[in-house]
Amino acid sequence: MSTSQVLLLGDPRLYEKCTPVVGRDWLDVPNMIARLDMVLNAFKTQYGAFRGIAAPQLGIMKRMIYMNIDHPVVIINPELSKLSEEMFELWDDCMCFPNLLVRVKRHYSCTLRFQNEHQEIKTWQVEGGLSELIQHEYDHLEGILAIQRAIAPTAFMWRP
Asked: Of 16, 85, 120, 137, which is the active-site residue?
């Protein structure tokens, strides 16, 4: 797997809402995890950045996120709630347009309820950078890209 497996800005699938992982979909979860891991590692090698990837970025239209910050984490069928009123701005990046940065606002904290790869239900309360990452990847599951959250028409720049 290489970075070329990622759908690029303009691909209509990136704007589609994903369907939950249910029933027989669970049989494909190990293969999906392996693909997501390989592509995430390829991006880390090529760009020295990126901490997470959502399944639809590979054309897998399922509600699944894979992150690897300190260790691998699989998030399936996530639900976001308790989005804080407090927001912060940051330059966001995305594998679907890896050389473009977008200035966005994200909620400082949120609650995430999800299933792991063993179908166990987990609940996390996250804040700061992890909250931002989860919101970014969750947006992919909803068919929303960071460019749609730009704070202004001039809130774009090329990666230095």
From this structure: 137
